[in-house]
Specification:
The protein is α/β, with parallel strands linked by helices and about 260 residues long. Helices cover about 35% and strands about 20% of the residues. The protein contains 10 helices and 13 strands.
């Protein structure tokens, strides 16, 4: 799938998340493409159970709030890689790391490939495989059912796993950040896992690209001000800056301070 098509489909999903439903004609005008192109996009997103067809357009599919992992992984990929590299530069050889699910934490795992003697505790199978090439690494995974197509684990076993260890660094992503700094995810279990990682880490690190500021998701837990370090590709809009003030120098952009 081309980058242009991925970006357009992400825009369709995000607009639907904000409005609840969208029309073909509206999307064609907003995205400057033909109605036929929009219909093809909607048909493919409906096949993935991301959207559901409605007369003249589409609405959110009730059981699917987030975009499929493979689509998320290729969205804002350059920004995510820059954020991941900035995070990885703070991790030395021999560190013990918690790493959560998500496309940006996965990029952190890729950026950590040169490291040796890491202890990685993760519920992200993609991250585990990315670091499994280095035989000096120790990788610890939870039991339970693998969630597809994301290739990750969720549930009480995952929470117990993170609570049973202590790590120097806990690295995680988030679905969205509200204007007051509240951290949002799509499922309560994702919030619980993120909070378990934060509480059991010496240094908690949130990695995200700037599009997560203002992105809506239903489950809430924790606040951005509670974190030890936040790394984004760039600063968000001004309305979010008061929520970042308590972080001071602990809010970084991948190109330096905002």
């Amino acid at each position: 799938m081309s980058a242009k098509k991925i970006k357009r489909r992400e825009a369709i999903v995000e607009l639907t998340q904000h409005q609840g439903s969208v029309s073909v004609d509206e999307l064609a005008v907003r995205l400057d493409v033909s109605a036929q192109t929009i219909r093809r996009d909607i048909n493919d997103l409906c096949e993935l159970n991301v959207l559901r067809r409605r007369h003249g357009g589409a609405e959110l599919f009730e059981k699917q709030l987030n975009m499929p992992y493979d689509l998320r992984a290729t969205t804002n990929s350059r920004a995510k890689r820059a954020v991941a590299q900035a995070a990885a530069e703070r991790i030395p050889d021999g560190a013990t790391i918690f790493l959560s699910i998500g496309s940006t934490p996965m990029e952190v795992a890729q950026a950590l490939r040169p490291r040796k003697h890491l202890t990685l505790i993760t519920n992200n199978l993609n991250a585990a495989m990315a670091l499994s090439h280095e035989t000096t690494n120790r990788i610890i995974l939870p039991g339970g059912e693998l969630r597809l197509p994301d290739r990750d684990f969720l549930g009480s076993d995952v929470i117990d796993l993170f609570r049973g260890y202590r790590a120097e660094f806990g690295i995680f992503g988030v679905a969205g950040v509200a204007e007051d700094g509240a951290l949002l995810d799509f499922h309560a279990t994702e919030v619980a896992v993120r909070e378990a990682i934060r509480e059991a880490s010496t240094t908690s690190i949130l990695v995200l690209d700037h599009t997560k500021f203002g992105r809506l998701a239903p489950a809430v837990g924790g606040n951005i001000a509670d974190l030890d370090l936040v790394i984004s590709d760039k600063a968000p809009e001004r309305t979010y800056l008061p929520a970042l003030e308590p972080l001071g120098d602990s809010f970084l952009t991948s190109g330096g301070r905002p």
